[in-house]
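User: I'm preparing a small set of examples for a lab meeting where we compare how different chains pack in three dimensions. I only have the primary sequence for this one, and I'd like the structure in token form so I can line it up with the others. Please keep the answer compact; I'll paste it straight into my notes.
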Amino acid sequence: MAIESSEVTSQSLSRRELLWRGATVAAGVTVLGTLAGCGASGVSSSPSGGSASLTPPSTADEALKRLMDGNARFVADATITLGEDKARRLDTAEHQSPFAIVVGCADSRVPPELLFDQGIGDIFTVRVAGNTAAAPAVMGSIEYAAEHLGSLIVIVLGHESCGAVKATIDHVLNGASEHGSIPSLVEPIVPAVQAVKDQAADKIVDAAVQQNAKLQAQAIASSAAILQPLVAAGKLKVIPAEYHLATGEVAILG
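Assistant: Understood. Below is the structure token output for the 254-residue chain.
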């Protein structure tokens, strides 16, 4: 599949927009390359047939679509990998305007920028084991990005086989205890495990992962100081989701 060439003067586009478009500039003319047959390092269309010509989202719904389109590319091994070069580094050196906040687990297998196929300056990432927002520093980080950087959406991203969730299940069901500062990671997840503790043994981990993502999203959306007014005004959406380790797919949780 190929995208037809389009011509736009380079003066009409900001550097960020050029990077979004995945364009090459020659003699003041921007030309989109043919997408068919591109390797992982080349420009690629989305699996849904959309264009690699991208502009920064202006609404929460557009931001969510941008993330999910990126995840679809990641699942299909068709990533665009834009915005990871020197030009993008320089463009964001003095200012950032991430369109999304991802509250993710610190698990090494769940890197938000990769699984959503986004570049430098696109995602404000907050990661802590168990993807919880109980710590003031975590909530403050989310508030900062929403209020001062103009982020449009918060994704609370749980994932399959989460170690923090498993430790919490062991704590709730078997009385297990952790040492050092690890209990501070378990405590915020206890309500989620309590809510699903009667699930079958082969279902409880995934049920607790999903419930935890939902509860954390509710807590973030209802944070009165800064976030709740933005949500009420339609300027911010907070959405729970779950990442599947083997497939690479992100599923939005209802």
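A couple of notes for your slides: The chain has one domain: 56-252. Confidence is low (pLDDT under 50) at residues 1-53.

User: Perfect, thanks.
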